[in-house]
Amino acid sequence: MKKMGLILLVVFLSGCVTVKIPKYLQENFPYKKKFYARYEETLTATQQALKDLGWTVSEVANPTAFERQAETKDTPAQEVLIFTEVRQTPLILSSRYMSLNVYVRAAGDSTDVEIRYISVMPILFKSVKNYKNDPVVDKVFDRISELLKP
């Protein structure tokens, strides 16, 4: 009888859950790094790094469609926003869903790369969101650095 109750509890708790992860991520905890390479090289390395680490690029867009920036002389002439597909990592009674937004901006003789991360883990009637994951972001930055080495 106890086994049957335990089985029913596990089945009930591991049911289907709908998780909504926004495509565009707000600037909650951005990771930024400057690469001393040309914009085109850095963009290519960034896209390759994402692919190498298992992230699928879903869309490449102009960031001005999503963010309003102050009209200044310092506004970069070349910039792009890369959206990744949502990645699911199965856990024991739930799953974790993760996504990245990657900004690549020309900055004179260098290129700025900014990564925004989100993970959502549904637990019963609540979803836990997290905007930090140093190991994931560090892997992306390290891979970009490796690809940019001469």
Task: Characterize the structure shown.
This protein is an alpha+beta fold. 27% of the residues lie in helices and 35% in strands. It is built from three helices and seven strands; from the N terminus they run αβαββββββα. Strands 1, 2, 3, 4, 5, 6 and 7 form a seven-stranded antiparallel sheet that branches. β5 and β6 form a beta hairpin. The longest helix is centred in the C-terminal third of the chain and has 15 residues. It is elongated. The mean pLDDT is 86.
Q: How would you sum up this structure in a few lines?
A:
The protein is α+β, with helices and mostly antiparallel strands.
CA-based gyration radius: 19 Å
Main pleated sheet: 7 strands, antiparallel
Mean pLDDT: 86
Listing every helix as H and every strand as E from the N terminus to the C terminus, the arrangement reads HEHEEEEEEH
Count of DSSP H/I helices: 3
Ends distance: 66 Å
Shape descriptor reads elongated
Unreliable stretches: none
Taken as a percent bin, the fraction of beta residues is: 25-35%
